[in-house]
Amino acid sequence: MSERACVGNCNRRVRAEQDAHSEAIDAWHAHQLARAEAIDAGQDPDEDPGPETDPPAEPTLRPYAGNPIWCLTDAAAVRSALVDLDEKMTLHLLAGDGHGSLNFQDRVSGSAEPGSPSPAHDDQDELVRWLREWEHAFRESQGWPAAPYRGESAPALTSAVAWLTAHLDGILSHPDLAEDFGNGVLRWHARLEAATKTRVRPRWIPRDLRCYQCHAKTLAQLEGEDRVECRNPSCGENRGGPVVMTLDEYNGRVGDAKPAAKLARMAAAAEKQPNPFPDYGLKSGRA
Ligand SMILES: [Zn+2]
Ligand SMILES: [Zn+2]
To answer: Would the pTM count as exceeding 0.90?
Structure first.
């Protein structure tokens, strides 16, 4: 069985490179076809076959493997987003209902006003429905009985999140459910973060070693992730993009660099030592 690439964020550059590659392949095929047609047309001076071109170079980035579908880092990101949905929705409801008293009256009096009295509550109902669909899908895939009644609104959300969290490893390993569920959870989380303005801007922590590809001091680690990337946008321009490596790979390189750095320091120190045979600017006797 071949290893499957992780469907998560870790491979976004790999996917971008593959998309660019298939576009380049299409363009190259179109060029080949146009050339063949021009050559078939024979002596027609209007049809210049153009130069023969090489097919585009193969993609060079190596994708991170899924375990089996999401890598451990991205699966952990889905898990923390799922667990956080409950709290984010609570914040969303608190903020969303700050101006809701008048609408609440409308709702009580049963008036058929257009528009929702509480968009935040609608969001909550939508999220609960969405989570229940996934619970239903996973139960069905396992041949398990239907979900019990989980009540409405906030308690229903808490209980659906708890059930899905308890079965997350199974869902994220299920070939038919894993990708869409994980991406859906991340999208819901991003949506609630945007609505509650609680998005934390990820922080790049600079790392000491120079990039082995562009030799700039631009390697950095995104806080909380075990990945080190080169932040120089022109790094590897003709070689499939900036360097990306796991923290383990980076630390391995730090270990390798230590002896080299020590040698470089020793060499520098040796140069600073006074020359035991100074010639005081005089030329040696020989021509
Ligand atoms: Zn991944
Ligand atoms: Zn670089």
So the answer is: no
Residues bordering ligand 1, an ion, CB closer than 5 Å: 6, 8, 10, 71, 74
Count up the domains in the chain and report the number.
Answer: 3
Candidate from 157-161, 186-190, 243-247 with smallest mean pLDDT: 243-247
280, part of any domain:
no
Residues 14, 118: one domain?
no
Expressed in angstroms and rounded, the spacing between residue 12 Cα and the centre of ligand 1 is 9
Residue 264: domain span: 204-272
Burial of 161-198, coded b for 16+ CB within 10 Å and e otherwise, reads bebbeebbeebbebeebbbebbebbbebbeebbebbee
* Residue 281 within a domain: no
Ligand 2 center to residue 163 CA distance, Å?
Answer: 43
* Separation of CA 84 and ligand 1 centre (Å): 20
Q: Is residue 279 part of a domain?
A: no
- Give the number of whichever ligand sits closest to the CA of residue 65: 1
The alpha carbon of 65 and the centre of ligand 1 are apart by a number of angstroms equal to: 7
- Which tens digits make up the pLDDT trace of 262-279? 777 777 777 766 555 555
- Res 145 pLDDT > 90: yes
3 C-alpha to center of ligand 1: Å? 13
Sheet harboring 227-230: ordered strands across?
Answer: 204-206, 219-222, 227-230, 244-246
